[in-house]
Structure formats: structure tokens, C-alpha cells
């Protein structure tokens, strides 16, 4: 039996701008992201958005970026998401991590309490592109098709066995 690779840890300097809020941590071992908490209390009406502070600033190491993702439970239960998901925290940014929350529910408002977990922060290694200008990019199976050019559904065969007619 082979053992799975151990998770890599990366030291990240963190400055607490609000000492009463928790330091971002994983909810469970093995989680990819750490939870970010709301620094303020607010109400988002249907369709409304707000930039919400998290009370922390970090120094992302060179060669990495941190990405702010929505929390799936908030999206499923309340329609709460992030406008620019994922938001990018570059290695040169030293300000407070802000989350651009959006209430997508057409009928119900959403209340966010101070300290609520509102987003996840995922640290990822990133490559710096070095572009070479060319006249031809070469062929690929996809080509230049994009933005839904393959349609929205894939034919699925009917299940085997007897069929019921109503």
C-alpha cells in the first residue's frame, strides 16, 4: 500500500488587523482552503454586493498567489457568492484581504454577522509566464472554439432494461 504524499506547508506572514477575529485556519485536516471571517456585520439585499474586510493582511511568498473562493454552503443555502471569484491576492499586496460578496438570491436578503466564515483562501504555486510572440500557435483538438461552442449537454444512452410507458 502506497501512502499519499504529505501536504506541503508554506510559511506565510500574517498581520492581524482585528485581534478579536480568528487567524484563518482549515475547518478540517486535508481541506485546501482556510476560512476567512467577516470583520463587520451587514445585510445584503437581493442582488446587492459589498466589499467586506476580513481583519487580516498577508505576505504571500514570491512564486505563489492566494485565491479567495466562495464557501459552498453559503452559496447553496443563501445564494451568497463572490463577485470576482476567485479573487486573487498577489505576492506584492500587503493590504487587508477584502471579499466582494454578492447576494444572488432574487427574493431574500442575507445577514452576515461579525466573525462569520464568509470565504476560503487557497494558496497556490503559480508560474510566471514568459511570452514568445509567434505567427502560428499550432493545431490542437479544440482549436479556437470557446465560450460554449460544444453545447450544453452530452447525449447519454438510455438505461438498459424494461421501460415503463405511462
Low-confidence stretches: none
**Helicity, as a percent range:** under 10%
Question: Beta fraction of the residues?
Answer: 25-35%
CATH topology of the domain at 13-125: Deoxyuridine 5'-Triphosphate Nucleotidohydrolase, Chain A
**CATH homologous group name of the domain at 13-125:** Deoxyuridine triphosphatase (dUTPase)
- Overall number of strands: 10
Estimated radius of gyration: 21 Å
Alpha-beta classification: mainly beta
Strand order of the largest sheet: 1-4-8-6
Any idea what the shape is?
A: extended
Q: What's the tally of helices?
A: 1
What is the H/E string?
EEEEEHEEEEE
Please give the CATH class of the domain at 13-125.
Mainly Beta
Distance between the termini: 51 Å
Largest sheet: 4 strands, antiparallel
- Provide mean pLDDT, rounded: 90
Please give the CATH architecture of the domain at 13-125: Distorted Sandwich
Task: Write up this protein.
- The mean pLDDT is 90.
- The chain contains one helix and ten strands, in the order E-E-E-E-E-H-E-E-E-E-E.
- The chain has 166 residues and is mostly beta strands.
- The longest helix has 7 residues, at 72-78.
- The chain is 4% helix and 33% strand.
- The chain has a four-stranded antiparallel beta sheet.
- The protein has a domain at 13-125: Deoxyuridine 5'-Triphosphate Nucleotidohydrolase, Chain A, CATH 2.70.40.10.
Amino acid at each position: 500500500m502506497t501512502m499519499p504524499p504529505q501536504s506541503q506547508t508554506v510559511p506565510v506572514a500574517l498581520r492581524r488587523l482585528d485581534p478579536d477575529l480568528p487567524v484563518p485556519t482549515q475547518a478540517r485536516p486535508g481541506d485546501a482552503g482556510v476560512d476567512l471571517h467577516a470583520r463587520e456585520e451587514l445585510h445584503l439585499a437581493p442582488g446587492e454586493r459589498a466589499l467586506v474586510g476580513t481583519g487580516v493582511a498577508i505576505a504571500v511568498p514570491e512564486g505563489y498567489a492566494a485565491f479567495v473562493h466562495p464557501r459552498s454552503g453559503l452559496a447553496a443555502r443563501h445564494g451568497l457568492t463572490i463577485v470576482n471569484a476567485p479573487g486573487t491576492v498577489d505576492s506584492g499586496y500587503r493590504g487587508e484581504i477584502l471579499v466582494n460578496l454578492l447576494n444572488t438570491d432574487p427574493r431574500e436578503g442575507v445577514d452576515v454577522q461579525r466573525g462569520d466564515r464568509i470565504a476560503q483562501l487557497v494558496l497556490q504555486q503559480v508560474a510566471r509566464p514568459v511570452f514568445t510572440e509567434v505567427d502560428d500557435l499550432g493545431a490542437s483538438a479544440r482549436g479556437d472554439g470557446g465560450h460554449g461552442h460544444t453545447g450544453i449537454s452530452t447525449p447519454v444512452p438510455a438505461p438498459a432494461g424494461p421501460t415503463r410507458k405511462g
